[in-house]
Amino acid sequence: MTRSTAIASIALACGLAGAQTTTVDFSNGAEGWYGPAGIGGATTIEPAGGNGGAYMRTVFNDFGVTFGTASNAAFLGDYTTAQEITISIDVRVEFLNFFGQDVSRPWLLELRDFDTAQNGYPWTSAWFLFDNISQANNSGWTTYSVTFDPNSAALPAGWGGYGDEDPNTFEPTLPAGVTFADVLSGVDEIVFTTLQPGFFFGFTDHTIGIDNISITRVVPAPAALALLGMGGLVGTRRRR
Q1: Is the Cβ–Cβ distance between 11 and 229 less than 8 Å?
Q2: Domains in the chain, start-ordered, CATH in brackets?
């Protein structure tokens, strides 16, 4: 039996990975998540009306709105210890209006790393555009989700970078020498926002709710790793 055959056999027998999921449904408060606050309006936790109970709701007038956390450890840190990650959120648009006209706005996930920031940028980030949201299309709860390999050096399909600018197109990019995996090895803040890098919007009235924010990390199972180590030794010995 070759080493690769031994590993494959063990993988089939015990499974190589386990999924770890954390979900914030606001039934226990904000749990470290924030929404827009200040002169433009406020964000509250509503006890009912969400996609299953409580939810976070913002009524705010500004260029855009951002929901995020820099303190809930389950959503932060080194993503590259996982083989695969899925992040999802439920969103509902009650009102999205620009000077009396209903409009749509981008809805995206942004993963921020402050340690790799350079050239005067506040952070380096990788971001994924789910879709454009509007009251017409999102008056009911809509779930948006993305699954990705955090160990990819290149930006996966559909992802963009922030932290520098292409000198020819002036589009936002990752800084030179910084990879997707570099950003994801130290996520300091995760946000969902209508502010897409490289775009500018006028003051808009937003009434938006979010709920059921979740992250699933598919990680190697410790027992499987131990068996893989044993399988590697067995395979090597048999080749001799």
Answers
A1: no
A2: 1-16+221-240 (no CATH), 19-220 (2.60.120.260)
